[in-house]
Amino acid sequence: MDEGWKVEHIDNVPPMKDTFQKGWKSVRWHMGIEAFGVNAATKDKGEWLTPVHDELKDNQDELFVVLKGTVEFSLDGKKVKAPEGTLVSVKSAIKRGVLALEDNTTILIIGAPIGKLYSPPDWA
Questions:
Q1: For residue 79, what are the contacts with CB-CB under 8 A and spacing of at least 6?
Q2: pLDDT range class, residue 123, cuts 50, 70, 90
Q3: Host H or E run for residue 30
């Protein structure tokens, strides 16, 4: 990234560590992004792209973008089906999880804390 920019296809983004879950794409790390968190995941039908969790600890807003396939969001227990091209924003207190409804489904996850500078989590 010597030029100050980088181009990459989402399918070619690797996980930051070999121990990360199958299908994880460490976008922030791979692209050299420092201002916000951004990752992606690709999974097959019936697999969780992200497990059910909240972001209360980091007080983080998240934006999910369905890049390929169809998913089912669990948003505080409510099921929301989302096809390719759908944007879903989620506040920190909401328990969220994303389930792939088709093979080779990919989502992009963008997040940052509210009211303070972004700092990568310990695991990333």
A1: 72, 73
A2: low
A3: helix 27-31
Tokens of 114: 């509210």
51: its two tokens? 């497990």
**For the segment 28-73, what is each residue's pLDDT rounded down to a tens digit?**
999 999 999 999 999 999 999 999 999 999 899 999 999 999 999 9
Rounded-to-integer distance, Cα 27 and Cα 22, Å? 15
One of 3.30.470.20, 2.60.120.10, 3.60.110.10, 2.60.40.10 is the CATH number of 14-113, namely 2.60.120.10
Domain edges within the chain: 14-113
CA distance 108 to 29: 14
pTM for the complete prediction? Answer: 0.92
3-state SS, residue 11: helix
